[in-house]
Amino acid sequence: MDLGIKGRWALVCGASKGLGFGCAQALVREGVHVIIVARGAEVLQAAAGRLMADPARPAGTEVLHVAADITSTEGRAAVFKLRQDFDIVITNAGGPPPGDFRQWDRDTWIKAVDANMLTPIELIKATVDGMAARGFGRIVNITSSAVKAPIDILGLSNGARSGLTGFVAGVSRSKLAGQGVTINSLLPGAFDTDRLRGTMAGAAQKTGQSIGAVAEARRKSIPAQRFGTAEEFGAICAFLCSTHAAYMTGQNVLADGGAYPGTY
Question: For residues 184 and 238, is the Cβ–Cβ distance under 8 A?
C-alpha cells in the first residue's frame, strides 16, 4: 500500500533505538525525510547510519540527526534551528522510572510531567499551525498501554501520560481536524525494548523473583504469547501518518498483543 506521504518531512523523537527508531525506519521506507532526535550522540549517529543504509530507503530520502534533549527548551531550539516546518511529528520521550509512589517527591513528579506531558504539548504547539496552513499534518504521540490499564509501579508514567491523553482529546477535535491535521496516540504494550527490560527488572526487585521468571510470566499473560517488535510498531505509526488515516483523530491506538482485557 502506498501511504501517500513520500517527500514529507518528519520529526521523530527518541529515535536512536527502540520504538522511536522503529517509527523512523518505517517512515524512511515510505520515502519520508526524517530528522531524528535523541540525547546520546554516538548511538544516534549509528541509528542515522542504519537508516541511510536501509535497502528499502527510496533514493533521495534524507536522514538528518540532532543530538539533543527534546524535553529541554534548548533541545527543542536546536531541532527547530535545523528545520522549522514538519508535516509529521512523532513525540516520544523515555518513560520515567518505575517505583513506589511513596518515594517520589515533587521534583520527581515535575520531571515526569515535563517529559511525558508538557514536552509533547510544546511540540504540538510549535508545529500544528504550520501544518494547518499547508492543509496536512500528522502528530503521533507514543504513550503507553498503561493509559488504559495502569501498572502500579509505573505511577509516574500513568499520571503524566494520562494528562497528555486528556489534552489531546480536546485539541485534536478543535478546528485543526477540519484543516487536515490529525493528532493520535499510539499506546505500546510489551515490546522488546530497553524500557520493557527496565520495567521487568523493577518488578523482579519488588517481588524477589528473577528477571527471567518475571519475563516469562509477562510473556504468558499476552494472548499473542510474545513481545512485540519495534518494526511492527513502526508500521502502525506509519499508517497513522498516512493519507489513508485522515479520518482518524483523537484516538488512542492500543498495540499490545491482546493483553488489555476490556471491550472498550
Answer: no
